[in-house]
Amino acid sequence: MTNHWLRYLKSEKNILPTTASPSSHWTPLREIEPNLLLKLEFDNPGASHKVRAARHIVRCAVQAGHIVPGLTTVIEKTGGNFGFGLVLACSEIGVSVELAVGLSFSPLKRHFLELSGAKLIGIDQLRAGSTPREVVEWHLANAGRLGKSYFYTDQFNNPKNIEAHEYETGAEIAQQLKDLDNIKNISFVSCAGTGAHLTGITRALLSAGYTVDVTLVEPTGCDSRNSIFVEHKFEGMAVGVKPPLLDWDLVSDTVHIDHASMLATKQRIAATQGYIVGNTSAACLAAASALTVQLPKSHKVLTIAYDHGLWYA
Predict the structure, then answer these.
(1) 39/219 Cα distance (integer angstroms)
(2) Angle at 172 (CA atoms; ends 167, 175), nearest 5 degrees
C-alpha cells in the first residue's frame, strides 16, 4: 500500500459516514426569474451534478475494500457526465477508469473523457450493435482473460447514488433555502435517468420540513413509467429504461416538452441570464417557467442546471 493511498484513507475529508456528508464545494442556488430557483450544478468539478454520486460511490467502495488502488479498475456505462465524475474521483487515488459510452452521445464528451484519462471500451462492439450494458457485461465476464480486477459502479442500480443526492445535493439545497424569506412550499421540476437525484433531493426537502410537489419532465413521446421511449436529444432523461432508482410515489405530475420548446428556452436563458445550459436542463426550465405564475411569496419552483450546453449540437 502506497503512502499516497494511506494519506487518502487517513484524510478527514475522505472518511465518510454511512451516509454522504455535504461537499465543501457548494454550487449556487439563484432566483433567475420571479419564483424560479435554479441550482447551478454545472458549477461542480466535472461540470455536472453527477460528480456527487460518482465520488460518494467510489469513496464508499474504497471504505468497503471493493476498490484497491493498483489492483482495481472502475468500469461503468455512461453518457458522459457520470464518467467525468468517476475520472475525478478515481484520479484522487490513482485508480483507472474504463467507460462504455454509447456512440449516439456527444462526440465532444467522448473526446474529453479520453483527454481526462478515461479509457473508452468496446468501440468495435458498439459499432457492431452491442449496447453499453452488453459491453460492460462482456468485460466483467472476461475480466480474468483481460487481466483486470473490475469494480462496476452500476449507477443505475446502486442505492448510494440516491444517498449522495439526499445527504449532499438535497441537504445543500435545503440549507440554501433557509437563507430565503419564509419559503414553505417547493415545486420541484426534474427529469429522471436513473431517478436517483429526483428521489434523493425530494426526500431531503421533505425531511427539512418543506411541502414538496414533484413534476417529472419527459421528452414528447416518452413515458418512462410504462417503459415507452422514442429517440430524442435530451441526454440524461428517458434513457431507454424505467428509472430504477425513482420513487414514483414522489411524482405528482408529468409534463412533456418538445424539441422546439427546449431550444427556445435554451436561447432565452442564454440571452437573459448568460447561462448556456444543456438540453435536459433547458427542457426542465421550460416546464418550470410555466409553473411560476401567481405563486405566493412562500412558494418557489425549483429546477436543476445539470450541466452546460457546450457539449451539445
Answers:
(1) 21
(2) 120
Residue 223: closest CA among 204, 247, 241, 205: 241
CA proximity to 6, closest of 103, 94, 71, 128 = 94
Residue 140's Cα: distance from chain center in Å? 24
Residue whose C-alpha cell is 449540437? 313
With b for 16 or more beta-carbon neighbours within 10 A and e for fewer, the 24-36 pattern comes to eeebebeebbebb
Q: Report the candidate in 149, 96, 93 with the shortest Cα–Cα distance to residue 118.
A: 96
Half-sphere exposure of 10 (CA within 13 A, CB side): 7
Count of other CB atoms within 10 angstroms of residue 54: 29
What does the pLDDT look like over 239-249, one tens digit per residue?
999 999 999 99
pLDDT tens track for 24-72: 579 999 999 999 999 999 999 999 999 999 999 999 999 999 999 999 9
According to DSSP, the β-strands at 36-40 and 29-33 are antiparallel
For domain 52-152, give the fold: Rossmann fold (3.40.50)
In the chain, the amino acid numbered 47 is: A
| All cell numbers assigned to 234 | 435530451
- Sign of the Cα torsion 109, 156, 13, 120 reads negative
DSSP secondary structure string for all residues of 35-86: TEEEEEGGGSTTSBTHHHHHHHHHHHHHHHTS--TTTEEEEEE-SSHHHHHH
Rounded Cα gap, residues 120 and 313, in angstroms: 21
Q: What is the CATH number of domain 3-44+159-305?
A: 3.40.50.1100
pTM beyond 0.85: the answer is yes
3-class secondary-structure state, position 160: helix
What does residue 57 show for φ and ψ, rounded to 5 degrees? -60, -45
Q: How many residues does the chain have?
A: 313
When pLDDT is cut at 50, 70 and 90, the band that residue 265 belongs to is very high
User: In the chain, which residues fall in CATH 3.40.50.1100?
Assistant: 3-44+159-305, 52-152
